Amino acid sequence: MATYELMLSEKLTELRKLREDSALIVKNEEFKTLLEEALSSDEAFDYPFASLTTVGKIYSDDELVRIFSWNIQYESKLHDYFSFVLKKDERRDKVHLIELKRNKQYLSSIVNETIEHENWYGALYYDIIDVQKGNKTYYTLLGYDANNERSSIKLLDVMYFVGKYPKFGYPIFEVENGFANRVIFEHSARATMSLRYDTERNKIIFDHLSPETPALKEFRDYYIPDMSYDAYFFENNKWRLEEDVIAVNKEKKEEINLRAYDAELDTVVNVPVKSKWINPEDSNAPVAGGGHKAVLPENQTDKEEKIKKSKDKKPDSKGFSGVSYSNLNGKKNKRSKKK
Fold first, then answer.
1. If you compute the radius of gyration of the chain from its CA atoms, what whole number of angstroms results?
2. Could you say which DSSP state residue 100 is in?
């Protein structure tokens, strides 16, 4: 496998330097073909592929599923996504390799759809949470889509298997009007949204998003984190929504642990964080009225200056360097690796 990894690493480095679409498409197809060949090997499921730093590599907790995902950026700044899923069949002592074939779809329009592996919407997956419903395992996925220059997307989805093939989407997430197959968080590309699984609380904690001003309520590319947090916790076979999870925190612990990816170790580590939260009902707190409050937009002069600097900035001659999984708060491998 070491030989495969070396060849893949070289092709990935070449791929990340390219700027022209025609060359990019050809090189990516070469990389994908070689990766598929490597993943067909018996040792591939447990091999770390540590040098492929801009490819997501995550395991399920039951160690029966592994997902590889990566993206490329075209000259138009739009992104394309590619993925392979490995599924262990313990009864037959074999590993099934399935390619997810992308069919570009607007994520906001498919929140209640079931997606097949041949009709995949495309995303980078950076975490898996195994949950049980009866005798079936549902793999909750945390994902990211760079979307476009104006907005980015974080998402929650569920993957489960029918035979050897994965399906995506199941009505397991509580939302305002019932339950959805998946949850889409679209926000301004200028902002960074946190969506991560907190192992200490067994909750998916995420930034609450609000429009920069009430007048922009209908435009998701103006939504930004508003300094409050919500969460999903698993109860009665469903992911239940809990609002203002940090604000109503009653734990006495000095610290909580959040999971983050360590690029140097190529694994997930627990990061201790002080658990001293601000009570929004406190009249002296910076959140008014105990509710969500949008962050005020920059003044127009600052915006114009930033836009001017952005336009004056020279393009990067090195091409698209790939997504850093440490920025996604994800994990590429959450167990000890076998070589």
1. 21
2. E
CA-to-CA distance for 318 and 25, rounded, in angstroms? 16
pTM over 0.90: no
Tokens found for residue 188: 């301004």
pLDDT at 295: 40
- Which residues, 6 or more positions from 131, have their beta carbon under 8 angstroms from its beta carbon? 137, 138, 139, 140, 172, 234, 237, 239
At residue 336, the pLDDT reads 37
SS3 at position 230:
strand
Ramachandran bin of 169, using left for φ above 0, alpha for ψ from -120 to 50, beta for the remaining angles? left
Instruction: Return d(Cα 227, Cα 247) in angstroms, integer.
Output: 10
CB neighbourhood size of 74 (10 A): 14
Task: Give the 3-state secondary structure of residue 104.
Answer: coil
User: What single-letter amino acid sits at 256?
Assistant: I
In Å, how far are 97, 143, 193, 241, 264 from 279, measured between CA atoms?
49, 30, 21, 19, 36
Strand 65-73 with 56-59, pairing? antiparallel
The answer to whether the CB of 64 falls within 8 A of the CB of 141 is no
pLDDT single digits (tens) 11-56: 999 999 999 999 999 999 999 999 999 999 989 999 999 999 999 9
In sign, the C-alpha dihedral spanning 311, 317, 319, 321 is: negative
User: Which helix (H) or strand (E) covers residue 304, if one does?
Assistant: helix 300-312
Sequence length of the chain is: 339
Counting Cα atoms < 13 Å in the Cβ hemisphere of 101 gives 5
* pLDDT tens digits, 185-243: 999 999 999 999 999 899 999 999 999 999 999 999 999 999 999 999 999 999 999 99
Sign for the CA dihedral angle at 304, 308, 309, 313 comes to positive
The amino acid occupying position 140 is T
pLDDT in tens, 317-328: 566 777 777 667
